[in-house]
Amino acid sequence: MDINPIITSFKFFNIPITLTWYGLIVMTGVIIGAWVAEREVRRRGENGEVLMDA
Q1: Cβ(8)–Cβ(23) under 8 Å?
Q2: DSSP label at residue 8
Q3: Residue 13: which region, alpha, beta or left (left: phi > 0; alpha: psi -120 to 50)?
Q4: Most buried one in 6, 29, 30, 38, CB count within 10 A?
Q5: pLDDT (tens digit per residue) in 2-47
Q6: Is 50 a domain residue?
Q7: Domains of the chain: total
């Protein structure tokens, strides 16, 4: 069973863009990690905005 690593390809302002499953998984992990980190900072009573400014 072969899984195609490419989700889709398209052109954005004449620049070819290729979305892969690996890239989607990494991007999702970064977004969830930032969200969890901000929640933890706010839970501890600190300013969560400072975390995203770093």
Answers
A1: no
A2: E
A3: left
A4: 38
A5: 888 999 999 999 999 999 999 999 999 999 999 999 899 989 998 8
A6: yes
A7: 1
